[in-house]
Amino acid sequence: MFWDEFGFSFQESLAPTWARRGKRPIFRRVTKERRALSTAVALTLSGKIYKRHFEGSVNSQKLIEALDHLRRYVPGKIILIWDRARIHRSKITKAYLQNHPEILIEELPAYSPELNPEEYCHGNVKKGLKNARPTCKSEMRSLLDRGFARLRHRPDLLLSFFRRAGLSVRQ
User: Fold this and answer.
1) For residue 2, what are the β-bridge partners?
2) Dihedral sign, CA of 123, 129, 135, 141?
3) How far is residue 6 from each of residues 70, 90, 168, measured CA to CA in Å?
């Protein structure tokens, strides 16, 4: 499984849009909160997506909560391929992984997000939300869930994320 975390805020950048002639589109910010929600996502070669939302930024405790969530749905051994983020290398995370030998970790080379297909997965979800203006965190969570649900029904798109990362995958 390829693993990554990403955040979504009420201050996301806007994409070009349209409006009636002579009327300028107006987007109002709800809050100045930087990171409203974060999501930890695991993407499998078979096209399954496992995710866990959190309020605020992901820290080591939230990462462990996400790993426990994953263990509930995936029986047996789990091979996680993730980047070298500070929370992945923290003492708390390492202690947790020591106590759970069924989770094997493989690290991606430093500064190489293009090698992780999950980056393209959550990038696609964020792109679909470019001009969305949720008014609260629950609405934001709902928009994110719809984005991942859309991807679950598009195995061709998920396969393209693996190819984009330079992996040779057969259907």
Assistant:
1) 43, 81
2) negative
3) 17, 18, 25
